[in-house]
Amino acid sequence: MHRSLAGLALLPFLVLAAPIHAGEPDTTAPTINGLTLKNTASGTLVIPVPATDDVALGEAVATIDDAPAASATYGGTTSGTVTLSIDTTKYANGKHDVEIHVTDAAGNRSSYGIVMTVTFENVTVTPEATATPTVQQPHDRPTPTPTPTPTPLGEIGILGDEATRYTSRDFLSLPKRPRASKAGTLTLTARCPLPKTCSLNVRLTRAGKTFGTGRVTVKSKKTGKLSIKLTRSARAAVKKKPQTLRLTVAGYAGVVITLR
Q: Nearest to residue 259, comparing CAs of 184, 152, 208, 191?
């Protein structure tokens, strides 16, 4: 009887000394392992996404130029590979930013995933129109064919195929490690490669959200100073850690940068 009472007296100390692990939240993001892509793609772009997580993997998501393109689930395993398939014929030929993210079952997301620039090259076949024969009456006069008016493409007003020669990188000189000032301003050198004055509207975005804007006018073949003012939330995010963002001149394909 005395031994039983002594055991009960020690029970609270044993309970307090035992480590408590149950109920701890999962805050560790999954890891993407060795994902690579070729520089060009056509038809169906197949992307194997190997990943690991300390508890349970959720899904892999691919975006093309910040827009969702494909997704696949891992089924709750701690490691594995899923395959993402993207029909590149749905997109215009040229350079596109392909971004891969992986989340786990708790919603933790891989740190900005993997960003790669891939050129889509699909052959477009345009069927020839069949001409309808017309019978001209003796007194009919031929109707002159009107000359088509070229339509400006983009805010800068480049005409026809000339627009496809330029991207946002052609108008901006980008440092290797872009860095914002303490006041939240990113300063870049803008240039105008066109035979006319360039009026450049520039935006920093990610997943459709604006992180900063700037505007500058540069004369033909000249350079100028461009100041991009970051939003309050963007300044707070950059102070915590580098941010992967898309830098875009209005009317032209953007470029991905890591802002510090």
A: 184
